[in-house]
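[AMINO ACID CHAIN]
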Amino acid sequence: MPVPDRGYKALRRGRVSLDGQVYLVTTVCHERRPLFADAATARAAMTVLSAPATWPQASAQAWVLMPDHWHGLIELRGVETVSRTLQRLMTLLAARNPRS
């Protein structure tokens, strides 16, 4: 009997990125380190999260920044994927981190 997929692979099975669709996403800091507990880091992250340039083919409908992770409702616009949108976000957040 085959063993079912588990973890990240199972979450990705059947996932599609659709124009106009709203997705609930969560990103977690490496090793769940509470980077956003630091006020300067949290302010830098909020600047990135609020910038229209962060979301050229998507929009952040709502989000919450926690000490070690972020939750967001993202609406896709155009042909960009959820994966590409989050990749851009993570790249911009890493570039603005004053603790790096």
Notes: The beta strands are 22-28, 58-65, 69-76. Residues 3 and 21 are 32 Å apart (CA to CA). The two ends are 47 Å apart (CA to CA). Residues 82-96 form the longest helix (15 residues).
